[in-house]
Amino acid sequence: MNNETFGITFQYAICIKYKLKNNISLDRVDKKLLAIFLNSKIINKIFRGKRPVEYLSDSKEFTSPFIKKCPHNFLLSNDETFSVRTFQGSGKMFAPKVVGQAGDETFNHFFGHLSTEEISRNNFKEFCLNHIDEMLPIIVDYALVSDFNCWFYIEGKTFNYKILKRDDLPELTFDYKNFTFTRPTSNEWVESNTIKYKGKMVLELQLHTFKAA
Amino acid sequence: MEKLLLRIKITHNLTNDDVREIAMNIVDAFVEENLIEDNTDTNDDTEFAFQDIIHKKLNEIFNIKED
Prior knowledge:
Number of helices of chain A: 5
Helix content of chain B: 55-70%
Distance between the termini of chain A: 29 Å
Number of strands of chain A: 8
Shape of chain B: elongated
Number of strands of chain B: 0
Strand content of chain B: under 5%
Oligomer: heterodimer
Distance between the termini of chain B: 26 Å
Number of domains of chain A: 2
Shape of chain A: elongated
């Protein structure tokens, strides 16, 4: 089963459990997995002390001209937002919502203030190489965009999860000198570059040659 | 086959980034042909899912480890 089916089935199970209106097509849902989710206590555990009252993924709430789709999955009874990200295993990378797959305009909207000139595909690589310490806090901010961010994954045959609370996110500053790039110059960087902080891989940057993003 | 793969690896000295670029280009071609939806400015991870599968498979074939 692919991660999309895994993720949407889990979201659908939450909607069923809490009787939330949704437009999820049953074609996208794995019935066997749905029964497993509903018969397990995992949803109760995840939402202990929190009650989802609205399914937000389909809604236009929390959107803007640069945030076209709602970045949150659920609204809680206390008006806080909740998102679930599913992984088919632990330690996987993902694209943060909103900024993770930005086109030219969106990228400039969220990162343009870090540059004196408009960021285009001609200067994108130089911009990233020179401003990675300022970019990463913005990227992390959108990786944990909801008040509660649940990372849900399978380990062996067991469901596991971690909930990261946005309020617990410390003020992040990164020292430029601790960054290293597998492609340290724009000439060496063709389309893909792996960024490490203190030797640990934290980010992949991709510039698609054949796309407008 | 193994000899051929070894030769490819030695000749081109492929890195993990190189392989990711190959995967990106293959996925971009799928998008170009409308076989996969363009995920630019969306929260949809489908393109990355395809890219990761191709990347992982090629890394296995070329015996390249992710960083």
